[in-house]
Task: structure prediction
Amino acid sequence: MTSEDTLSLTVEATQRSLQDRLAECLAPAGLRARSRDAYAHTDAFLAATSRHVAAVEAVLVPSVRRQVPEGEPAVRDYLRVARRLEVTLSMVKARLYGEAHAIYLAWPQLWADVERQLTEHNRLERELVEALVASADRTELDVLARRVFDAETHGPTRPHPHLPHTGRLSPAARRLWAVADRVWDSAEGRVVPAPVRPQAHRHDSLLAQYLVGDPHFDDHASLREHRSRSTRDTPGTT
Result:
């Protein structure tokens, strides 16, 4: 990852946010999921995670399939783990709202499953991002980061493990259920946090900032631009 790799920075920030929300759920009150705060923390985690998984499937998975040679095995591994995580998230939501088929589930075991599966999901997602970083230029990565954010903004806020995750029907299914989710979110007063915004692109130098009319006067910026990406990324160059 380079300092200009907006996609990696955005995904890493989102994953940290999800881990922080999960940590709130794993607090003693969350393990029982009885207090008002525990309900709010759990709802926020479910919404943020469901939305992010849907965005990865909508944006990054097709991009890897199009741009990364021999990227299909990584996509299959990711989708398998993502679906398993969504199934577990749907069980957490059912347990939280007291649905009959889930009342026997123990909170500590549910959260242990979520923690393990989210860790595996994040590892495989990073592999997809690393593959894209290796095959795309900086501008394309900036566009992908923005598309992930836009997809999260308009994506489903509940887990839907049985919807089509890829193929021609998946975008329409996501849009349909995203609208339905927003209606139910409003009716139930769910806590739906805002997605993590991509970091604004920062120019390499004060000269570059001046030339594009976007001066930030960063104390750490060099007077002149750094070398081109191909030279900068070559091991052993000075």
